């Protein structure tokens, strides 16, 4: 279970840093491949994540990554606005096409 949470937090952090604004970014994909995937087990994962994001992995940062799901970041980047209190109540997503 702990490894699942660790992986989920790291995936959320990397997604928000590299792909939130453009999930199909060629630049983001190449950067991720070059600085993360190509090393395999040759470097420590924590060092690679810190290099990619430019900041230290702290307990607070990992916890925040678990609390804020990728779906939320993706929808906000895609121009959706959330309605609802966000505290367990239903949330409704509405695509903002007005440009405001």
Quickly describe the structure:
With 100 residues, the protein is mainly alpha-helical. 53% of the residues lie in helices and 8% in strands. It has five helices and two strands.
Please describe what this structure looks like.
Helix 1 (about 1-20) crosses helix 4. The longest helix has 17 residues, at about 1-20. It contains five helices and two strands, in the order H-H-H-H-H-E-E. By secondary structure, the chain is mainly alpha-helical. It has a two-stranded antiparallel sheet.
Mind sketching the topology for me?
Elements (H helix, E strand, L loop, with lengths): L1 H17 L7 H10 L9 H9 L5 H9 L2 H8 L2 E4 L8 E4 L5
Antiparallel strand pairs: 1-2
């Amino acid at each position: 279970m702990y490894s699942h949470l660790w992986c989920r937090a790291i995936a959320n952090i990397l997604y928000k840093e590299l792909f939130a604004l453009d999930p199909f970014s060629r630049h983001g994909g190449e950067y991720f491949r070059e600085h993360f995937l190509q090393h395999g087990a040759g470097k420590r994962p924590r060092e690679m994540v810190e290099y990619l994001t430019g900041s230290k992995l702290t307990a607070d940062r990992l916890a925040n990554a678990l609390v804020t799901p990728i779906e939320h970041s993706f929808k906000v980047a895609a121009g959706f606005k959330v309605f609802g209190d966000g505290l367990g109540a239903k949330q409704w997503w509405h695509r903002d096409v007005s440009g405001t």
